[in-house]
Amino acid sequence: MVTQRSTGGSAAPAGPAPADRPPAGDVLLMAVAVLAVSTSGPMIAAAAAPALAIAFWRNAFGTVAVAPVALARHWAELAALSRREWRLAGVAGVLLAAHFATWVPSISFTTVASSTALVCAQPVWAALIARFTGHTVPLRAWVGIAVAVAGVLLLTGVDLAVSPRALWGDLLALVGGAFAAAYMAIGSEVRRSVGTTSYTTICYGTCALVLLAVCVVSGQPLTGYDSRTWLLLLALTVGPQLLGHSVLNRVLRTTSATVVALAILFEVPGAALIAAVWLDQIPPAAAVPALALLLLGIGLVISSRGRGTPPSVPVE
Question: Which of 42, 157, 253, 294 is most buried per CB count within 10 Å?
Fold first, then answer.
């Protein structure tokens, strides 16, 4: 996920090979990052604020955190960006807003475990986008897609038996994963020539502005929350948004995108465990094999990725 602005029009060098063993330090960092992103769903579920407002404040706080660094250290790069780079980074920001606008509300309708697992199907969507844009998708990936779809159907069937509201939440999470995959596809193109800090500033800023407009038009209250909710909003920014994904960006310098993406799948049981302990939210027993099947399918898709393939890491 980390690329620097290239010189002479050359592409960024390929990262570590998928089979490379991650350094011991990266294993510890990945554990920290996975724990951070695992708190995202439970904290969203616990926050007493409208879903779209949560998405706005999370990205607004994120923009405030990274923008000073970008302006102080990367002003020359920002000033030198082409219109195409600005346009693509802006489109990525809009897609990120669409991701948050669908995934965050899904947690209000279904369980944290189901929502997190379904949005983590992003690599499946990424593989389908790759095929649609003319790239070859390996047989292993197609097998993984079939397994993942079976897991999705089984999980949504279980959730429908619990409540029609849960099915709506599942659909929102799936759509959120599709938007996340599209965001990553555009983002990987931008980051061939634009550094992560500059890109993140533009993307988070655009995302926050889009979500602000949606909140204003739909009449979502942006203030008036209790102190606990404000603390949760700040924790969402510091934990999943900055600590989690900033650490993953650092790890991707020395560990393959395949290993990182597979490690992120531990977010699903992590989020489910936190939700069970903190929110007393325990998914139905029948959902467990469905979740396992879904994660197996996603894992097959991720592990089919070759050397140099852009990472597809969930953005929660």
Answer: 294
Contact 104, 54 (CB under 8 A): yes
> What 3-state DSSP class applies to 207?
helix
What was the pLDDT predicted at 10? 36
Q: How far apart are CA 106 and CA 308, in angstroms?
A: 33
Neighbours of 139 (CB within 10 A): 8
Phi, psi of 92, rounded to the nearest 5 degrees:
-60, -40
Q: How far apart are CA 203 and CA 214, in angstroms?
A: 17
CA atoms within 13 A on the CB side of 65: 19
Distance CA 259, CA 299 (A): 10
Q: Alpha-carbon distance 125 to 145, whole Å?
A: 9
Positive or negative CA dihedral for 209, 214, 217, 220? Answer: negative
Check residue 16 and give its pLDDT: 58
pLDDT tens track for 159-169: 988 888 999 99
> DSSP state, 120?
T
* 307 close to 257: Cβ distance less than 8 angstroms: no
Asked whether residue 65 is assigned to any structural domain, the reply reads yes
Question: Which residues in the chain come in under a pLDDT of 50?
Answer: 1-14, 19, 307-309, 311-314
Q: What is the per-residue pLDDT across 18-48, written as a single tens digit (0 to 9) for each?
A: 545 677 788 898 899 899 999 999 999 999 9
Domain that holds residue 180: 24-303
